[in-house]
Amino acid sequence: MTTIPTRRLYTGWFLAIDDEHEHAVTDEEFSRTRAGGGLPEAVCGHAVSIASCMSPPGPHCHRCERYLAARETFPDLATRLDPGRHVHRKPSLLRRLFRAG
Known about the structure:
Distance between the termini: 35 Å
Order of helices and strands: EEHHHH
Number of strands: 2
Strand content: 5-15%
Radius of gyration: 20 Å
Largest sheet: 2 strands, antiparallel
Number of domains: 1
Shape: elongated
């Protein structure tokens, strides 16, 4: 099985006017909407109406945080698509001492 390399994801956090949460928007998505118009879409799928940069920061969106954490935890595409496939580590000392049999 070959692994498909993924490129690094660069994001910025932007405060949304409608829900007053900061959402993670990729650099590519932000530049695409700046050039073509429209609202940028956060990694959680929320269309972000960006608030003024002078407004105080809000709490981070939990869905965006979970997405970014999952992306860091499973760095390659094959692992993200099949999270059940993972490398088993050696059993702990206590488990080896007290195993049945």
